[in-house]
Structures are given as C-alpha cells and as structure tokens.
Amino acid sequence: MQNNLRLIGLRILVVDDDDDSCFYLTIVLEADGAIVRTVPSAALALEILPRFKPDALICDIALPGEDGYTLIRKVRSRKAYEGGRIPAVALTGYADSDDRSRALEAGFQTHVAKPVDPGELVEIIANLVTFSKC
Q: Which pTM was predicted?
C-alpha cells in the first residue's frame, strides 16, 4: 500500500456490525491519517452523525435492524448542514450488479465489494471527499 497520507484529519464514520471489519478499516484509515469512529448499527450512526460531523461515511449493507440502504436514505433526507450530503461508500459483501445499482439508487456515491484493497479504499475515499468539495 502506497501511503501518501491523503486522509490526514478527515473524520470517517464506519458503520459495520462485524468487529473484524471495523478493526481492519480503522487500522487502514488511521494509517493514512484519518480520524475514525465505528458504530455497529444504522440507529447509532444517525445518532453520532451530527456530533461527529464526518467527512465521509463507509457503510455495510447488512446491518442489524435497519440496513445500509435505509440508513443512507435517512442521511440523504437531512439538510446539508446536518450531514445530508456526506460522501458515502457502500462497502459490502453484496457484490453483484443489482446490489451495486441498488446502493447507488439509495444514495451511496460508490459501491465497493468486500474484501477491498487498502490502497484502493483510501483512493476512493480521498477522491470522493475531494470531489464533494468542488
């Protein structure tokens, strides 16, 4: 993994109920300079969003209770200053073309299949955040 520290200071909210996935994502993103918070559910993500004010959201689709599709729809229904325009990545094991289409239609900017290469993930997030600021 080439480490250009492209994520320095970016706040990233990871929503995944798998402890190993959260640990892996935290290590990868913090190694590139990000500040990472992880939560295991959509409900907790919605609760922390206004306080943490993340620059990007990484979300699994299969979550307990409400799924990632429901979460991103709720996020997108918020005003921009409430996090409604946050760049969002669906990072999921649901990896066929229908899953990708469904994720994009729900409001994610991109869909990435697990497992993901660390360098690719950093690149995706850096590009999304940069593009969202244009």
A: 0.94
